[in-house]
Input
Amino acid sequence: MTQTPLLTLDEEDRKLAGRLLAAFLDDYERSLPDLPRIVPDIDRNVLTALLQEPFPDKGIGVERLFGDISDKILPNSTAVAHPRFLAYVQGPPNGIAPYAEAIAAALNQNCNFWQLSPAASVVERSVVRWLAGLFGYDDTAGGILTSGGSIATLNALTTALNDRRPGFRRSGLQDARSALVVYTSEEAHRCVEKAAVILGLGLDNVRRIPADGDYRMRVDALGETIRADRAAGLEPFCVVATAGTVTSGSIDPLDAIADVCRDERLWFHIDGAYGALFVLSDRKRAEFTACARADSIALDPHKLLFAPLEAGCLIVRDREKLRATYAFASSYLTVNDDPLMPDYMNYGPQLSRGFKALKVWSALRTFGVEAFRNAIDHTLTLAQYLAERIQAEPNLRLMAPVPLTAVCFQIKNATDADHTAILTTLANEGTALLGPASLGGRTGIRACVTNYRTTHADIDLIVNRLR
Ligand SMILES: Cc1ncc(COP(=O)(O)O)c(C=O)c1O
Output
């Protein structure tokens, strides 16, 4: 009889694990619409025991493991896929995702160089090429899947530094030249500032350009600030525009910012983590035309392609600029270049990398691109419906236009504390998980429809309760 190798499951346990997994996924899917709560009623005793219980010397086996997951993990997990989870920019995972993730784990391809991941390298290339094509980039473009939009923007700023500051790879920012400055709007996501901190640019060298009444970067103020910085002996090198700001979904004037970047010879990066994939919608495509003029775009398949965490993406118009930033020759990794299969270790900071592309590729193939267009259109429709319902309610007030799917509103005469209390009540009673909004010094409530399961009835339920 052949012995089962250590750390594998024997045939009987494999069958059991398969059955239990299938049952778990099926039960979870069925439970979603009727879950009493979105944020769980956390059992602190169970979580404390999870923390303190020592790992067993002799394993508990497959059946008890699944029992623990069902009894301890599941009831203490947030129901992100619930149709009234409308907080933050996070959607439910698509249906094929858990299966694709399981296969990626089994194959365990290391997507660093092609020898360890030949098919995976091509799958990632095809996903990135499709994404780049959505924005009108041609075959000189390239990119890489990342853990999310924040890291995509960090990698973009690193590439921008390497491209705009001669000798950056050798001397970094350690020589005595003038300070480099990056420009973004006051509505930009904190990931721009985080990147500036990590890269040693310093927060004092991030200019948060004022926004207009619709929360879009003011291009006149951008131009003036760049000129003032140059006059002061500083070195502007990059503008980060946002296509879909995190709070209100506003889209900066991309074309006008592209003109400024061209005239001032600055790297033009677009943070499209939330908004860029609305390019898939016929209703919104025209608003993203100027993306083709950007040097780089960050976007998030784990938002609008409903990939499970984590799946972000950086696209760079000239992929050689990524290689110029990140490629190193290492004696311990030498493989011959192959024109078909990119070596992704040359496109970003990671060496060992998982097969994130499989879940994105699998979903696009299983459901087809049209299904994603429809899902995205559905979120747009529901956000407009929510905005209309809010406008029709005498006690509610929209705080900003709704160009995408983030709806910010206030309850008339409510204080900050009232808004916070309402958010807590809605979450505790299981009506909805919404988030806080802060715009132009005013605070309120934000519902971001990034959820293909949400229905008109869900929106009605929320508005009726708010009323
Ligand atoms: C505009 C914007 N940029 C960046 C991010 C960060 O993306 P990630 O959470 O994937 O790092 C977000 C997240 O919501 C966002 O909305």
Remarks:
- The chain has a mean pLDDT of 96.
- The chain has three domains: 11-37+40-77, 102-367, 369-466.
- The longest strand covers residues 235-242.
- Residues 47 and 131 are 40 Å apart (CA to CA).
